[in-house]
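Morning. Coffee machine broken again, so started the prediction first thing and wrote up yesterday's gels while waiting. Chain of 97 residues, entered below exactly as on the submission form.
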Amino acid sequence: MQFSETEIIEKIKNYGWYHTIQLTQTIKTPGQDSYLPMQEVPLQVLRMLERKDGKVLDIGSRDGLFSFEAEKLGAKEVIGIDNDLSPAAVEFLIPFF
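Came back before lunch.
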């Protein structure tokens, strides 16, 4: 699904965000400032691992930051599970990506 920048900005205002997720070169989800430092270390590790054609299991995915990043980095299969999956992930991020 293709969205204009204006549509993206309007859509992200409709949700509460846990993670900060880069959507375009200029737009990212707001996330929660207290979680920003905690998401950087796992992102760095994920980027160092060999994921091409690999499988990734993201437990506690919430907004799906690590799932979407693994997919972007070439993972062949990504499974994200959470007992509190965010509406933002289901209604906006999955169709967006």
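The beta strands are 55-59, 77-81. Going to sketch it on the whiteboard this afternoon.
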